[in-house]
Amino acid sequence: MGTRLARKPQNAYHHGDLRDALVHAALREAELGGPEAISISALAKKLRVSQPAPYRHFADREALLSAVAAEAFRQFNATLRDAINGPSKRTKLSRFAQAALAFGLRRHGIYRLMFASRVMACSPKDSELHSAAMETFALLLEALESPAVGLLREHHALQIWAALHGVVMLAEQGLLTGQLAETTREELLDDLVAQIKLSLSLAIKAAEKGR
User: What pTM, to 2 d.p., does this model score?
Assistant: First the structure.
């Protein structure tokens, strides 16, 4: 009788795909408990690999967090791109803002990793994380549907970025119900982006007149 080949465990990983497995497993942990929930040793145990194995792909926990945040931004960008490119009577900017709000509230653990942790500040400027985050900002500029006049578009995009982040964080903490003003957070966000877009339009007209 021939020698039976040993069957590989279902959760075993070949060299080369462990990196992706670690990133996606960590993403699931962040989804449930935010960045604090990510532990390299716990992930190694869950994926049934040796404790040193993850360190062949990531120098330390910060490097893993950076890769996870980059993947989170790519998923965020896909959501935003679908929102602004889909058929709708709403403006691209409104669709961008509402999609970002929904993502932030639905996937708040990941959102905190992206926007409320030190991972971005600790990552090199040429990292995949910074590239993915810059793509998010490029989508916001596209959603503004305004001409480039100096840096007016970028300044107003930052105002929207700050307002959007504030609404997400306050709403998630239960500090923004809208009951006092009899409005929803979605309506509040639409009002904010409409005001900022109007301000941008007026600033562009003033700049063009002054030429």
Answer: 0.88
